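Fig. S4 source data, part A: sequence.
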Amino acid sequence: MKKIYALILIFVAILAVLGIVYADSTQDPGSQQDPLVTKSYVDSKFDDLKNYVDSKAGGGTASGYDIVELNPGESITLYQGSEAIVRTGNSSTIVTSTDGVSDLTGGKDLKNNALIPANHLLLFPRSDGRGIKAKSYTIVVVMGKYTKN
């Protein structure tokens, strides 16, 4: 019985020595084979990736909300996936196809020349010329790609 315990103890000791030798032979953290990275490096790569994605999205996409001021008669054309909130003023929708602009707040579809309620979130589903036309001085909050006409 003591021989079995001795054999188990020798086996465990051999495994421990092999584990130490293996752990010592692996790459050191921070070496050429196992490099460490800094926060500035990761931030730099993240910014590069963000710029790449923004360039593929059409370039002029706002990363946040833009405030657009429209005088009477001026308009903005919004592109696919853009959102807008008319904060002040009277304005109407510009719709070039049979579908309208999604009024997410009101839960309805606004057709061409429909009056846009203040503070309603609008979603523009396609890049087909849909937009907002100001009837009076209007302030619009826009997220996404747009063109002021």
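Fig. S4 source data, part B ends here. The CA atoms of residues 104 and 121 lie 6 Å apart.
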